[in-house]
Amino acid sequence: MASGGPSAPGATHLATKVELTISCDNLMDMDVFSKSDPLCAVYINTSGSGWYEFGRTEMILNCLNPRFAKKFVIDYFFEMVQRMKFCVYDIDNNTYDLGDDDFLGELECTLGQIVSNRHMTRQLLLKNKNPAGHGTITISAEEITDNRVVNFEVSARRLDKKFLWWSDPFMELFKRTETGWQLAHRTEAVNNNLNPTWRPFRISVRALCGGDVENPIKVDCYDRRVNGSHALIGSFQATLSEMLLGTHISPAEFEFVNPNKLKKKNYKNSGVICIKHCKMEKEYSFLDYIMGGCQINFTIAVDFTGSNGDPSSPRSLHYINPEGYNEYLTAIWAVGNVIQDYDSNKMFPVFGFGAKIPPSGQVSHEFPVNFNPTNPFCPGIEGVVQAYQQCLPKLKLWGPTNFAPIINHVACFARQALWQKTASQYFVLLILTDGVITDMDQTRAAIVEASRLPMSIIIVGVGEADFSAMEFLDSDDKLLISPTGDVAARDIVQFVPFRQFHGSSVALAQSVLAELPDQLASFFNSYKLKPPNIFSVPEPS
């Protein structure tokens, strides 16, 4: 769930958080032998300086009427015009850039219009403002006033076979609203299994049942089909209060019923769902943790490999122009200026990788840019910029491009913080790079391990290189898997290519930091760690 959004100076206390849910109908079919594979990208413009990408939904295979499960939480200010744009694409490849995907239409509006309508349906338009076929988009807004979440551990047994001798089952959970059933959560599909156990998941009580544990919840179980025509295995309805009875010793069980089979003689059900764990908990927000004393520790890692070019040449990505800037410096200023407000001492460790360093001339993938191993900290973002500028003439840019050493370096400190069993420290690693990762297997393993720590990784791609490896690490649609088969506990990587922002440092900072608040809050909540100074924040109710 994406969260955050720009705040108006001096108006934070007037903000209301709203959650947006997106669905589309009658999208244009751009594929010849199948249906379109839609994704919706959400953009925001509040300062008048241009659009920046706030987040993306999941991509849904072969579907012209998608119901996106991903939610977007944004701060709503009554006194501001918050322009929003919802762009729908047919995804045809695995690259981050949407420019080479088929455009299915867009809606431009304000957040105020969405909030005032609550459930707003509008026609999708092409870039020339003509209708995008018969396509429409519906955006639902709901104010967030309930901080409770429900943790689920769910399995099933004896599900119906829908294809020869197996099924690939997944579930969808729906909340009942005044306009019908609204998708609250979609699980992953478990391949070739009639007795599946799905990964544990959590849903806000607000999204699941509107905050009322006696409201009905509908659960559908499907056999996944690649062509998008998923086959219904069965459904049931229950209340959250009934589901909360489930324990590992005595699971709450419900029968999946397929209405098309009710007329069959001796039909009982199409399988049984076992809710082994269903627990409602209070959840703290990002601001609860920050106001309660949590510090964000910001580490910067800079790519000094030879592919950047000779820093003395104007064609080099490390060339500092007469105005004193390059893409690396712009990214450091943009992200650092935002995040330094959450670090009380504003001392930032800065490391380089991929260069031969003095005095030995040996290649290092984890050297302090101030060349002081015992004190790699730089005072403020100004100190970071100064250290970067001073180290460049002393280096010989080399290679290869290895990420794992610096990720493991920061993970070591995050691990020590976790041992304290407090929510007092969170670590953010900003990696600025121009090229393809050389140690991909080691990097995948390092990220999967770091996903279990109070840590996030931001990667900014500088230059015009192929960043498909970075896009793979930013696994929004599915959790990253290490070479040994270990699955990441959560998504902690956010990648953006610098070229996407056309030099706008404000838009760059807003985009790369959009996922950080939710990553921090969800990590500490999953470990049941309260803000350090609990008396500084109100108890959620």
Describe the structure.
The chain is of the alpha+beta class and 541 residues long. The chain folds into three domains: 12-143, C2 domain (Immunoglobulin-like), CATH 2.60.40; 148-282, Immunoglobulin-like (Sandwich), CATH 2.60.40.150; 286-340 and 399-526, 3-Layer(aba) Sandwich (Rossmann fold), CATH 3.40.50. 18% of the residues lie in helices and 33% in strands. The chain has eleven helices and 26 strands. The chain has helices at residues 111-117, 205-209, 240-243, 286-291, 327-339, 380-391, 404-419, 440-450, 468-473, 505-512, 516-526; strands at residues 16-25, 38-45, 52-56, 72-76, 83-90, 102-110, 119-125, 131-143, 148-157, 169-177, 180-186, 201-204, 216-223, 231-239, 252-255, 272-282, 295-303, 347-353, 355-357, 362-364, 367-368, 377-379, 396-397, 425-433, 455-461, 493-497. The strands form six sheets. Strands 17, 18, 21, 22, 24, 25 and 26 form a seven-stranded mixed beta sheet that branches. β10 (169-177) and β11 form a beta hairpin. The model is unreliable at 5-14 (pLDDT under 50).
Helix tally equals 11
Low-confidence stretches: 5-14
Strands, total number: 26
Tertiary shape: globular
**Proportion of residues in extended strands:** 25-35%
Overall CATH class of the largest domain: Alpha Beta
Query: What is the straight-line distance between the termini?
Result: 21 Å
Structural category is alpha+beta
Share in helix: 10-25%
Number of domains: 3
CATH architecture of the largest domain: 3-Layer(aba) Sandwich
**Largest beta sheet, briefly?**
7 strands, mixed
